[in-house]
Specification:
By secondary structure, this protein is α/β, with parallel strands linked by helices. Helix content is 49%, strand content 12%. The longest helix has 19 residues. The structure holds magnesium ion.
């Protein structure tokens, strides 16, 4: 397994020239998303259907589960139709909760200084990506973004990586990818991305995850 130190080294020598970063949980605190889907949406859904919060949450968790790792899961237009709630408007309502993880901004600044090509690679819907970039102003450090809805496959599938490679033209052996979802890291690794890092702390209010398979960081200052 490549160590974090080796990756840090590869970032400073230029062995890595392309950096792909997941958004939710990796750059941004996943607390926003967890609060949104596990608290706000059940609350609104309960009101709408005149049921208890507990019942609403139970029904919704089952619905979420049945669409996990598919494009529906990340498609807010799908959820707006499915739940009869304006999902984007609700997200706007709590946009003040969107937070950038510590040291992310200095990491992105450093990557820009070192002239890396840096992209967000996210399963998030482009409307949500847009909302979050407007709120956090991280776009100025980025070369661009790749979203699974534009690609047509979620990051958990090899097809996502094949098409992303064609679209932005990165070299697998010179690319770093950071994500807080292990299933996504597995696919990226199977595809052949050489430097793959697990962001263990996704939601700042939940204990971090662990991995025996991937080098892990809690915070981006470990990569600087
Ligand atoms: Mg994530």
């Amino acid at each position: 397994m490549t160590t974090i130190n080796e990756i840090k080294q590869a970032l400073s020598t230029g062995e890595i020239d392309c950096v792909l970063l997941d958004m939710d949980g990796t750059l941004l605190d996943k607390y926003f998303d967890d609060y949104f889907w596990e608290h706000l949406v059940p609350e609104k859904y309960a009101d709408k259907h005149n049921i208890t919060f507990g019942r609403a949450k139970e029904e919704l968790l089952a619905k979420y589960k049945s669409h996990e790792q598919t494009l529906n899961w990340t498609d807010i237009d799908f959820w707006s139709r499915e739940l009869h709630l304006d999902i984007l408007a609700l997200k706007e309502q709590i946009r003040h909760i969107i937070e950038v993880h510590p040291h992310v901004e200095s990491f992105l600044k450093l990557m820009k200084q070192r002239e890396k090509r840096t992209f967000i690679a996210t399963n998030a819907h482009y409307k949500v990506l847009d909302l979050k970039l407007r709120k956090t102003d991280l776009g100025k450090y980025l070369t661009g973004s790749i979203t699974s809805d534009a690609i047509g496959f979620p990051k958990e599938m090899l097809e996502f990586w094949e098409r992303a490679e064609q679209q932005i033209g990165f070299l697998r052996e010179r690319t770093l990818f950071v994500d807080d979802t292990l299933a996504v890291l597995k696919t990226a690794k199977a595809f052949g991305i050489k430097y793959v890092v697990y962001k263990a702390l996704g939601n700042s209010k939940v204990p971090p995850g662990t991995s025996t398979e991937f080098p892990a960081v809690m915070d981006f200052n470990e990569l600087m």
